Amino acid sequence: MKGHTRNLRDVWWIGVLLIMGSVAAAYGQPSGFTEYIYPVGKLKPTDSVAKLKVGDVAPNFTLPAVEGGKVSLRQYRGKKNVVISFVPAAWTPICSGQWPGYNVSKGLFDEHDAILLGITVDNIPTLFAWTKQMCNPGEKLWFPVLSDFYPHGAVASRYGVLRSSGESERALFVINKKGVITYIDVHDINKRPPLDAIAKALKEVSGQ
Amino acid sequence: MIGIGVGNSQYEVDTYRKRYDVPFPLFPDESTDFSLQLGAKGTPTFIGLRVNKKGVQEHFFFWEGSFEDNQQFLNKIVESAGL
């Protein structure tokens, strides 16, 4: 009892810090997930030549989706604002936190009548395993994840975000319901684009 | 209990708070410096700190990764705290 009292007296404050990541890991990516992430090290921030600019009509594409079937950009014309998130590769550090972060912020996309399309140059089986692993059991990403694997990086190339290494840039495009590009961010590949910028771009495109 | 958003902006932390109705304080650590100083290499990381009257902080609990059972996890923290 004495010891117990001493403990309480000595302990002026006890706190537990919960270190969260990237808005992402809502209650954490599944235990062990980070063990599978390949350490890519620091890369050249960008490694491509821009082919598109704000005001251009976004090139249409049709790509296979992890959930099955194919998704075309054109199917959202007149219906939804579109955010395209190119990420460099599955199983790499920043990408593995960026998309779970968009799961947390789904409300933002809904609020601005927007769909998100996630694209990498990986093949479908790889994307299947990676996206399944990044979510907690029973959860999944709410947005289509598309494979730009074959012809390799063709869509990334058309959007001017294919790096010389064969991965894509970490890039965001916002496209309005008329199919016109209203925002482009070819981000430093080593850093996750802040959600703030997407929120601002969505606000502008939806006029809300 | 407080939460630190590693690499998160204030806007992102606010989004997280609203989405999960978090009842405890959350702070952004945009540069990640603070979290790295505490030894957090990945997320989530749970750190128990004891601050004595002199203001000195001591780790009494350190856990990396998620956990399965809430009650068992809480018991571990309480046990580590010596309470």
Q: Which oligomeric form is depicted?
A: heterodimer
Topology pattern of chain B, helix = H, strand = E: EHEHEEH
SS-based structural class of chain B?
alpha+beta
Average pLDDT taken over every residue of chain A: 86
Low-confidence stretches of chain A: 1-13, 22-31
* Shape descriptor of chain A: globular
Q: How much helical structure, as a percent, in the residues of chain A?
A: 25-40%
- Largest sheet features of chain B: 2 strands, parallel
In a few lines, what is going on in this structure?
The complex is a heterodimer of chains A (208) and B (83). Chain A has 208 residues and is α/β, with parallel strands linked by helices.
Structure characteristics:
heterodimer; A: 208 residues; alpha/beta; five-stranded mixed beta sheet; two-stranded antiparallel sheet; 6 helices; 25% helix; 21% strand; globular; disordered N terminus; B: 83 residues; alpha+beta; two-stranded parallel sheet; 3 helices
Description:
The complex is a heterodimer of chains A (208) and B (83). With 208 residues, chain A is of the alpha/beta class. Helix content of chain A is 25%, strand content 21%. Chain A contains six helices and eight strands. Chain B has a two-stranded parallel sheet. By secondary structure, chain B is an alpha+beta fold. Helices cover 34% and strands 29% of the residues of chain B. Chain B has three helices and four strands, in the order βαβαββα. Chain A binds chain B through residues 7-8, 10-32, 34, 97, 101, 104-105, 107-108, 136, 192, 194-196, 199, and chain B through 1-9, 11-13, 15-16, 18-20, 26, 35, 38, 40, 42-53, 60-61, 65-68, 77, 81-83.
